[in-house]
């Protein structure tokens, strides 16, 4: 029987962790861009657009991410479309991330006082100008901490993609366990790596929150 | 022709008719105070004049710009008439100077240099030239309201609407704001102000409008309205005020 050193295990896990990082980045950036587009519809004047985004958010927030991954992976397969695991994983996570970010951001836009809309309107600004120069600069300040905080959820969400066969950190953990028969060591390391990825994010969310609040008070 | 012409204006919120046919003409350079109990429709009337509320019936014209609910007409109207709010509504993420510069640059496309020069002049005019770089939360309520006035003036409106602009201020800060308004009036600015400052209305205004239950109940020069109220409603309202 082959023996594995701790370094063998860790090295393999770290190699797979790269894919966790890549998938997280793709999901977060893709979800962020899609989220912005959805936000534009969600707070816009067209009723159809608002209703569409409302339905979208309900759908993706109201079903487990795992089901969404299954549907993306197996569902499209039923129609004869061969979806590789990485594509299904990326697609589902982008859609899922966008559904949460758009609601976080909508809350931030709506937290800007009504008087700001009225004052800018009475100075003659149009909707786009109000958004661009008055509302969004204030909303962004409110949005940064919860957005960074949500990125932690995205990183942890990528673990589910192991079930459809995408080899990231969790999947690598299973594979390595099957080879080494040392589940406690392996999953312990997996957990540590996840923690090392997530903790700086949640910490920076806290720091940003404090910083931006102070900035808001005193500049 | 009057600068502001309000004709048979009706406005309802759901089942409540808050304005029941208002007629009011304001001449160029005139200073008009609107008084009345809360709920009498005075703030709503003011907010209709620059299109923050839409009217259900009648018409409002300011210097040839009519209140019509589309972006182009609203912009044209709002360039003629500025507004100052009870809660100041300065943009908190911008310095005082930037607050005054922003709409000039964005709405009128004034170059930054010119906008800044105008902002400095207007801040000077309200006595805050030295606060150009201060942020709103570094200013007192009275100072914030004066920046708001400078911001409205920088758009060079023909008339200003003042919606209870001293009601959110500590008593010792009220006078510095009223002094600025008084100066504007002396300079010939057309003003329509909803106010609870009866003494100020008496001193500065050309005409006083008493609103009651969505109607103009009494109107006239301040000596008449305050000195010789004709209706029991106005007498009762004035009796309830502390200082007249």
Automatic annotation (TrEMBL), chain B:
GO terms, molecular function:
ABC-type amino acid transporter activity; ATP binding; ATP hydrolysis activity
Entry-linked Pfam families: ABC_tran (PF00005)
Keyword set, alphabetical order: Amino-acid transport, ATP-binding, Cell membrane, Membrane, Nucleotide-binding, Plasmid, Transport
Q: Which organism is it from?
A: Azospirillum argentinense
Q: Which residues form the ABC transporter domain?
A: 4-238
Q: Please give the start and end residues of each transmembrane region.
A: none
Stored InterPro entries: AAA+_ATPase, ABC_ATPase_HisP-typ, ABC_transporter-like_ATP-bd, ABC_transporter-like_CS, MetN_ABC_transporter-like, P-loop_NTPase
Signal sequence segment? none
Q: Where in the cell is it found?
A: Cell membrane
Concerning PROSITE patterns, the annotation shows: ABC_TRANSPORTER_1, ABC_TRANSPORTER_2
Predominant subcellular localization, coarse grouping: membrane
Instruction: Report membrane topology.
Output: Peripheral membrane protein
Gene3D superfamilies xref list: P-loop containing nucleotide triphosphate hydrolases (3.40.50.300)
Q: Which family does it belong to?
A: Belongs to the ABC transporter superfamily.
Q: Name one GO cellular component term.
A: plasma membrane
Protein name per the record: Amino acid ABC transporter ATP-binding protein
What does the record list as coiled-coil region(s)?
Answer: none
